[in-house]
UniProtKB/TrEMBL annotation:
<dbReference type="GO" id="GO:0016887">
    <property type="term" value="F:ATP hydrolysis activity"/>
</dbReference>
<dbReference type="InterPro" id="IPR030679">
    <property type="entry name" value="ABC_ATPase_HisP-typ"/>
</dbReference>
<protein>
    <submittedName>
        <fullName>Amino acid ABC transporter ATP-binding protein</fullName>
    </submittedName>
</protein>
<dbReference type="GO" id="GO:0015424">
    <property type="term" value="F:ABC-type amino acid transporter activity"/>
</dbReference>
<keyword id="KW-0067">ATP-binding</keyword>
<feature type="domain" description="ABC transporter">
    <location>
        <begin position="8"/>
        <end position="242"/>
    </location>
</feature>
<keyword id="KW-0813">Transport</keyword>
<dbReference type="GO" id="GO:0005524">
    <property type="term" value="F:ATP binding"/>
</dbReference>
<dbReference type="Pfam" id="PF00005">
    <property type="entry name" value="ABC_tran"/>
</dbReference>
<dbReference type="InterPro" id="IPR017871">
    <property type="entry name" value="ABC_transporter-like_CS"/>
</dbReference>
<dbReference type="InterPro" id="IPR003439">
    <property type="entry name" value="ABC_transporter-like_ATP-bd"/>
</dbReference>
<dbReference type="InterPro" id="IPR027417">
    <property type="entry name" value="P-loop_NTPase"/>
</dbReference>
<keyword id="KW-0547">Nucleotide-binding</keyword>
<dbReference type="InterPro" id="IPR003593">
    <property type="entry name" value="AAA+_ATPase"/>
</dbReference>
<dbReference type="InterPro" id="IPR050086">
    <property type="entry name" value="MetN_ABC_transporter-like"/>
</dbReference>
Length: 246
């Protein structure tokens, strides 16, 4: 098999908020077309790590290397870098005053600056992909949480990112709506999208994840393929965590 390209490489990343040391010497890599699931209890630093990766937070030190290039705000145009890194949040954050279609074409027309008719065409294809082709002209408030999150995924994809980051994408959903969003994410993974997913859905992590990263108290405690991670964890911390999730 051909060697997979490295999309993201993080080396010795540290981040504090005042006296609170939130990320401690994080080393991690994400290979092209892989799904990396980031798990750990609340407060362990998962969101901060994603936000550093997307340059919504500024690292204190360490390296973030995207597709071979070390990124340092100040030397690069961060907005350009961010275009390659899509993000899907727990609370979908759709624009409430725009229809589904308008939500999706907003960034492609204003940031990617593609013609509107092309953006509309691409948006419609994405809506087919997430199973919402009949919701084009509907406002977000008329959709279920699961549908809104699928629109948010389509909106992120419309920027044609090289990697998509998900921060607990199903945590705000009623239980009966979780499955449809996970199915959409699974289909994306099967299409070869590179993804980092913060999740408490261990079934998804086990089934769809190519690699599991477990964080505790700002450190990566254990990192392994799902077969190994879930069946034969090495660290005591991991075993304790897995007991609380099943
Ligand atoms: P997780 O996503 O794993 O629950 P977070 O990355 O959100 O963890 O938070 C890690 C720690 O950093 C927590 O103690 C949290 O309170 C703290 N924290 C997160 N964001 C900020 C911030 N902007 N200012 C101060 N403390 C923060
Ligand atoms: Mg979080």
């Amino acid at each position: 098999m051909e060697e997979q390209k490295t999309i993201v490489r993080i080396k010795k990343l540290n981040k504090s908020f005042g006296d609170l040391h939130v990320l401690k010497d994080i080393d991690m890599k994400v290979l092209e077309s892989d799904v990396v699931c980031l798990i750990g209890s609340s407060g362990s630093g998962k969101s901060t790590l994603l936000r550093c990766l997307n340059f919504l937070e500024k690292k204190d030190n360490g390296q973030i290397i995207i597709e071979g290039e070390e990124i340092n705000p100040g030397t690069q145009d961060i907005n350009k870098v961010r275009e390659k890194i899509g993000m899907v949040f727990q609370h979908f954050q759709l624009f409430p005053h725009m229809t589904v279609l308008e939500n999706i074409i907003e960034a492609p027309t204003h940031v990617r600056k593609i013609p509107k008719n092309q953006a509309v065409e691409e948006a419609k294809e994405l809506l087919v992909k997430v199973g919402l082709e009949d919701k084009t002209d509907v406002y977000p408030s008329k959709l279920s949480g699961g549908q809104q999150q699928r629109v948010a995924i389509a909106r992120a994809l419309a920027m044609k990112p090289d990697i998509l980051l998900f921060d607990e994408p199903t945590s705000a959903l009623d239980p009966e709506l979780v499955g449809e969003v996970l199915t959409t994410m699974k289909e994306l993974a099967e299409d070869g999208m590179t993804m980092v997913v913060v999740t408490h859905e261990m079934g998804f992590a086990r089934e769809v994840g190519d690699w599991i990263v477990f964080m505790h108290d700002g450190r990566i405690v254990e990192s392994a393929p799902p077969e190994v991670f879930f069946s034969n964890p090495r660290e005591e911390r991991t075993k304790e965590f897995l007991k609380t999730t099943s």
